[in-house]
Design goal:
The complex is a heterodimer of chains A (283) and B (1025).
Chain A lengths: L7 H16 L8 H14 L5 H10 L1 H11 L10 H20 L5 E7 L5 H14 L7 E8 L2 H9 L1 E2 L9 H7 E3 L4 E3 L1 H6 E5 L18 E6 L8 H14 E9 L13 E3 L6 E4 L2
Parallel strand pairs in A: 1-2, 1-7, 2-6, 7-8
Antiparallel strand pairs in A: 3-5, 4-5, 8-10, 9-10
Helix pairs in contact in A: 1-3, 3-4, 5-6
Chain B lengths: L1 H5 L2 H67 L3 H28 L2 H30 L3 H91 L12 H33 L5 H15 L4 E8 L4 E8 L10 E3 L3 H9 L3 E3 L9 E2 L4 E2 L3 E9 L2 E10 L5 H111 L5 H33 L7 E3 L1 H19 L2 E6 L5 E3 L1 H18 L4 E9 L2 E7 L34 H11 L3 E7 L3 E9 L8 H13 L1 H13 L3 E4 L3 H13 L4 E4 L2 H11 L3 E5 L7 H10 L8 E5 L4 H7 L3 E4 L4 H17 L10 E5 L3 H13 L3 E5 L2 H10 L4 E5 L7 H10 L8 E5 L5 H8 L5 E4 L5 H16 L7 H10 L8 H8 L2
Parallel strand pairs in B: 10-12, 16-17, 16-18, 18-19, 19-20, 21-22, 21-23, 23-24, 24-25
Antiparallel strand pairs in B: 1-2, 1-8, 2-3, 4-7, 5-6, 7-8, 9-11, 12-13, 13-15, 14-15
Helix pairs in contact in B: 2-3, 2-5, 3-4, 4-5, 6-7, 6-9, 7-9, 9-10, 10-13, 11-12, 12-13, 17-18, 22-23, 26-27
Chain lengths: 283, 1025
């Protein structure tokens, strides 16, 4: 019963080690404070007072592993979160990408929504892409690859059903066009669903720089929003490196409002707009 | 000449002036002397010879007058006249004496004196003669007197005259001599004057030249120095010496230059200091830079820079110059401690000069001597102490250096202040950023947990509403059950009642009394019995299906015949209600299914249609749809409202369940039909609008199922739902295609067709006439064209002809849209399909499916030289990306969506290379490889393994002898790199095959070969194996 004396910190360490061992997901480079808070929340939910008691529970309940991962990976997202950024995407970024490619043989747009959680961001971007290209006489291949490390979040995302609240920032016209209203929720149209390909992927993993589902990188746009804040600077830099490798020349990177591009790769991007975190990879 | 340069210019001017005055005076004296001599000479000339000569002449004159007086005397007639003459005579004699006295007085030389004496004697000697004559005259003896006069007297007169003439001549000669003398004197004087003037001019000129040269040379030397400064911009001193004004001026100038030099030194030093400290320097670098610079600039022998720690009230050594730490000397000073501490405390600099002590040695490699001066300055900015700068020097620190050090201390202090501020700002910034991120994270988390709460709330709400729904459902099912029971009892009771009533009636009346009426009764009884039977059969059917005990007997039959059969049964009913039934069937394949059950369903649908239709017609059609047959029953009956759509297939359900409903029936028919349809692998779809009628469609697979258990059927239909994915892919394929060109002049029809096509996932471009259509066809190379026949100007037939005539558009499939039935004409003109107006949506889709199928079945049109690739990949998205990328690269790409299909393709056609996914359901990549390599002609087929999986050592071992050319981890390369990898498959094919198994090669690459720039993907190969 010497386990009784374990602090929350050391329990977290053990949990993280366990997650790494069983799921091959390494959260060690995540900011600790949020993780600790979430662990506390979880313990409170299960009414554990002692961290070691929870650890015991965790070790004896295999299902808790995934649950804890979901709790750690929790992310708030909604359609067109930060509408200004999406306006920029719709009116600056996408037209630039389309113009860049229009006359090339390869009329293909590849977008990666990294840490997509329940997919709202990925669907938002897919809607914007569809809007931008629906009247285009030329055929375009459009892919939105959306990845997250939480299988349950992805399951929700794939279902494509959302509540009204997540659509608060969505224009009514968009809702009318791209959603079917059910009794309790809004179902995204199959048309948009088909454009988005969800897959599990650990953004911090160094096994690959682009999601496996996308086969290869060469993205025109990467959205990596409101996830870097949970990472330590070192980990952030590693993620920036992956993103840099995955992006096409002059491809765009969009970060969350509270996030800034830092580290050695900062020089390889330029910020296209002072009011939002939109960066373009330099040639 | 030294004395001259020491002479002031004033003195030199005075000297010159004096000299000039002297010359002038000398000259004047000379001139006046000459004039005096001349005047003397003139006077002599005038006074002597001339006076003598004049006196001589006067003597002569008066002698002549005496003569005349004598004559007058002689001629005098009266006494008076005589006396008068004698008186004049005496007066003349007197004047002669007087003149002779003058001569005597004036004449020079002894000769003249003798001459005068002789003349005087002679004149005196004449007196007795004249007296004699006077007496003679008085005596009246004039003749005697005349004779005497003529004798003696004449002689005397001539002698006297001679004497007088001599005297006069002498005097004349004497005067001439004086004039000559004067000439000589004049000449001499002139010569002297010329000589003197020349000499003086020489002296004066020399002096003037000398003095002016001496002034000008020093002036120009000064001027040159100045000019040099102006032109070169470098300050230099004048080398003039001496004690004169210019030298003094030069000294002042030199002093000015020196001062300026100091100022410049100061200013440059400060500027350089500022430059040194400009830029983004770290605190320590800034300190060391300023220390080094200051020390070098003032040529100090040592220097130390202390920063002031405000918290500990301590000066800490932060930087030093040529400073050797010694035990004696501390690196920290408290306020007031030591010189540094003192300076820090007072905030006043301290200067120590003439240090003699030996213990503070400034040392170089060669010497070690005590510094002479030490200067410690506080670094103060805004009255706040930032540190102390201490400088030791072998030299005395002069005022300028002091000034420099003082100014520099301000600069350093300012920089220290700025640096401190910057550091503080940086720290704040970092803290703020961290806080921001932390806050954002917390915020996120709050939002997330809020969201979670919201979700939980939502979930609870959903649960509540689900519970509510369940409650309602339970109530509903209760209601339905009781409704059903009451319906059923009613349905059962009604025929039973009539059966019982009629049989009782017949029994009470006895049989055979009224055979005709009995016959009627029996018919009614029979009909009611039949009704009851069918009702009970229905119930049994339903329960059988529910229990999974319904058997399916599949046979081959013609769907049209079954329909006809059902129609035959129902037609009388319809005729009875005055409804028209039309039947249209397309050429259909023989269906393999349970004919009876199909018949039952159709019968039910038809009877429903008849039952719910009061007037209008019922249209029955048969059409193929993919691998299904669609039986469509369309009525113009009461229709079903949308909210009831979901319920119509429920058991015991009629739209109106009340007992007063106008339509009879158990409400079991549709429920049974739907279950039967599902049993056969199909389903029933409904489309309806209240008041307009309903369309029920039975979708039946052409090839019925073999397995007959209901559970399987349920599963299968679930699978159908999950079949969404391939459908999605099909839609994707449609979007990948070129658009469909719709040529239609009627806007309304055009919109309808366009909407149908978009709905089906095609891309559409439209043209409102044939001409524009031709243009667009050439421009966009559409995937297919729908062409209206009746158009103004160029009609559909002409457009079709032109489309087919043009090489660019001949291959594009054309679907004619027309009201007429000129199918043959269309075929002859080269149309691919034919759809009648009003546009039949399904027909249109069917035609396009055919076109699509044709395109798919055609081998990919690639020129022969391109390599063919087989992509074996179960993930549709992945294979689509790979194939599109490689097709663009000029490869002809075939896709197999699984291991089994891949092997099938391989057996049919050997591609030039294979791209193989490892993880696939069913036959996986490993198995494909095993099989592939077991086929002799495929042993060397290049294979690129593409995997999302990180391979285990076991898996690696399985691959190691499979001769894999490339192993690529999905997501670890870019498009270009993938292309490079694939291209390399063929480059390497040309090379002799490597005997080394892949695992070894990779191992080698991994360990020894550094990644070469030319193949970035070889590195990928290495990293991910």
């Amino acid at each position: 019963m010497n386990e009784k004396s374990l602090s929350l910190e050391s329990v977290l360490d053990r949990l993280l080690a366990k997650l790494r061992a069983t799921l091959d997901i390494d959260l060690c480079d995540y900011q600790r404070k949020p993780l600790l808070r979430r662990l506390e929340t979880r313990m409170a939910q299960l009414e554990f007072g002692e961290p070691s008691a929870y650890l015991e529970y965790f070790l004896s309940h295999p299902a808790e592993t995934m649950l804890l991962l979901d709790i750690f990976a929790i992310k708030f997202t909604s359609f067109f979160r930060d509408p200004f950024v999406f306006e920029k995407i719709a009116h600056v970024v996408l037209p630039a990408i389309i113009e860049q490619k229009r006359n090339s043989e390869n009329r293909e747009i590849r977008v990666w929504s990294a840490a997509c959680a329940t997919g709202e961001e990925a669907f938002s971007i897919a809607m914007l892409m569809h809007e931008a290209l629906k009247t285009d006489p030329q055929p375009w291949r459009q892919y939105v690859f959306a990845t997250d490390l939480s299988p349950s979040a992805l399951k929700t995302a794939k279902r494509g059903q959302f509540n009204r609240k997540s659509l608060e920032a969505t224009k009514l016209g968009m809702i009318d066009t791209y959603f079917t209203r059910n009794k309790n929720n809004y179902q995204i149209q199959a048309l948009i669903q088909e454009m988005v390909h969800f897959s599990e992927d650990d953004l911090t993993s160094d096994k690959r720089f682009a999601p496996a589902e996308s086969v290869f990188g060469s993205f025109d746009l990467i959205l990596c929003r409101n996830v870097l804040i949970y990472f330590t600077p070192t980990l952030q830099h590693r993620v920036f490196d992956k993103i840099h490798q995955s992006l096409n020349q002059e491809g765009y990177l969009i970060l969350g409002e509270a996030e800034t591009l830092s580290g050695p790769l900062k020089a390889k991007f330029h910020k296209i707009d002072s009011d939002s975190q939109i960066y373009q990879k330099k040639k | 000449m030294k004395w001259l340069t020491n002479l002031t210019i004033k003195a030199r001017m005075v000297l010159l002036f004096v000299l000039m005055m002297g010359v002038f005076m000398t000259f004047s004296i000379l001139i006046s002397d000459g004039i005096e001599q001349m005047s003397k000479l003139t006077l002599t000339l005038y006074e002597h010879p001339l006076r003598v000569s004049n006196a001589a002449r006067k003597t002569i004159e008066y002698e002549i007058k005496i003569q005349r007086d004598m004559r007058d005397l002689m001629l005098a007639k009266t006494e008076l006249e005589m006396q008068d003459a004698v008186q004049r005579l005496r007066e003349s004699e007197k004047i002669v004496y007087e003149t002779l006295d003058i001569v005597k007085l004036q004449i020079l030389g002894t000769e003249g004196k003798t001459l005068e004496e002789k003349t005087r004697q002679l004149f005196r000697a004449g007196l007795p003669l004249r007296n004699e004559m006077i007496e003679l005259v008085y005596k009246g003896e004039r003749d005697a007197a005349l004779l005497l006069n003529q004798g003696k007297r004449m002689e005397y007169v001539s002698r006297l005259e001679e004497k007088m003439e001599n005297l006069n001549a002498y005097a004349q000669r004497k005067a001439d001599g004086f004039i000559v003398n004067a000439e000589e004197i004049k000449k001499d004087t002139e010569t002297i004057i010329y000589l003197v003037i020349g000499g003086l001019a020489l002296i004066l000129g020399g002096a003037l030249y000398w003095i002016s040269v001496s002034i000008l040379s020093s002036l120009s030397s000064l001027k040159e120095t100045m000019a040099k400064i102006t032109t070169s911009g470098e300050l230099s001193k004048s080398e003039l010496e001496g004690k004169n004004e210019i030298a003094e001026m030069a000294q002042h100038f030199n002093a000015l230059v020196a001062r300026l030099q100091n100022q410049f030194w100061l200013r440059n030093g400060l500027n350089e200091m500022n430059r040194e400290l400009s830029g983004d320097l770290s605190y320590d670098l800034m300190l060391s830079k300023s220390m080094t610079f200051v020390a070098r600039y003032v040529k100090a022998c040592a220097g130390t820079l202390y920063s002031y720690n405000n918290e500990q009230r301590l000066c800490e050594l932060r930087s030093s110059y040529a400073y050797v730490e010694r035990k004696l000397l501390a690196n920290q000073f408290k306020l007031g401690e030591g010189l540094v501490g003192q300076v820090a405390m007072e905030k006043q600099p301290i200067l120590l000069s003439n240090i003699q002590r030996e213990d503070a040695l400034g040392s170089s490699g060669t010497i070690a001597e005590p510094p002479r001066t030490m200067y410690a300055i506080p670094l103060i900015y805004n009255q706040e102490l930032f540190g102390v700068l201490e400088i030791a020097s072998f030299e005395i620190i002069n005022e300028t250096q002091k000034e420099f050090l003082d100014s520099v201390s301000v600069i350093i202090a300012t920089s220290l202040f700025t640096a401190a501020q910057k550091q503080q700002i940086q720290e704040l910034l970092v803290a703020t950023q961290a806080a921001n991120e932390e806050m954002a994270a917390t915020n996120e988390e709050l939002t997330a947990s809020n969201e979670e709460l919201q979700a939980q709330k939502e979930e609870l709400r959903v649960q509540a509403s689900e519970l509510e729904a369940q409650r309602v459902q339970v109530q509903e099912s209760d209601r339905l059950k009781s409704e059903f029971l009451s319906n059923m009892s009613h349905e059962l009771r009604t025929p039973l009642n009539s059966v019982l009533a009629l049989s009782q009636l017949m029994m009470s009346r006895g049989t055979g009394k009224n055979p005709q009426q009995e016959g009627e009764y029996l018919k009614v009884i029979e009909r009611n019995g039949q009704q009851l039977l069918s009702l009970i059969n229905d119930i049994l059917d339903l329960s059988k299906i529910e229990a999974g005990r319904m058997d399916v007997y599949n046979t081959d039959f013609d769907p049209a015949q079954v329909t006809e059969r059902a129609l035959d049964t129902i037609r009388p009913l319809a005729d009875g209600k005055g409804l028209k039934i039309s039947f249209h069937s397309e050429d259909l394949a023989i269906v393999h299914s349970d004919e009876d059950k199909v018949h039952q369903i159709l019968l039910n649908l038809l009877s429903n249609a008849v039952k719910f239709t009061k007037r209008g017609d019922i249209r029955v059609s048969l059409s193929p749809s993919g691998s299904d047959v669609l039986f469509r029953v369309q009525d113009t009956g009461i229709g079903i409202s949308e909210k009831d759509f979901t319920h119509i297939f429920d058991e015991f359900r009629q739209v109106d369940g009340s007992t007063t409903r106008p339509h009879e029936g158990t409400g079991l028919g549709l429920a049974i039909c739907q279950k039967l349809a599902k049993l056969l692998g199909g389903d029933i779809l409904v489309d309806s609008a209240v008041g307009l009628g309903s369309t029920f469609t039975l979708r039946l697979p052409v090839q019925g199922m073999t397995d007959q258990s209901v559970e399987f059927i349920e599963k299968k239909s679930e699978m159908n739902r999950s079949m969404m994915v391939p459908q999605v892919a099909a839609k994707n394929v449609k979007r990948e295609l070129a658009p469909i060109l719709v040529i239609e002049d009627d806007k309304k029809t055009q919109t309808i067709i366009k909407n149908y096509l978009i709905e089906a996932g095609y891309r559409v471009i439209t043209a409102e006439n044939g001409k524009r259509g031709l243009e667009l066809a050439h421009q966009f190379k559409p995937f297919a064209i729908t062409l209206d026949v009746l158009m103004p100007e160029m009609d559909g037939w002409e457009t079709l002809r032109q489309l087919k005539a043009s090489e660019q558009s001949a291959a594009i499939p054309v679907i004619m849209i027309t009201v007429s039935h000129d199918q043959e004409t269309a075929k002859i003109l080269g149309a691919t399909g034919f759809v009648t107006k009003p546009v039949d949506k399904e027909g249109l889709y069917r035609q396009l499916e055919e076109v699509l199928a044709n395109i798919k079945s055609q081998p990919v049109l690639q020129t022969e030289r391109h390599h063919s690739l087989l992509v074996i990949e179960d993930n549709e998205v992945a294979s689509l990306q790979i194939s599109s990328t490689l097709t663009e690269e000029g490869y002809s790409v075939q896709v197999a969506s699984g291991g089994a299909e891949g092997l099938e393709c391989l057996k049919q056609h050997r591609p030039d290379a294979v791209i193989l996914d490892l993880m696939m359901p069913g036959v996986d990549g490993f198995q494909v490889l095993e099989e592939l390599r077991s086929i002799p002609q495929m042993v060397n087929l290049p294979v690129l393994v593409l995997t999302a999986k990180a391979l285990t050592s076991e898996e690696r071992a399985r691959l190691s002898h499979k001769n894999i050319r490339e192993l690529v981890q999905k997501g670890s390369l870019n498009r270009e790199q993938l292309v490079v990898c694939v291209n390399r498959l063929f480059q390497e094919e040309a090379l002799p095959l490597r005997a080394v198994p892949i695992a070894q090669t990779v191992g080698k690459v991994e360990k020894k070969t550094p990644p070469t720039p030319e193949s970035s993907s070889s590195a990928i190969r290495a990293v991910h194996f």
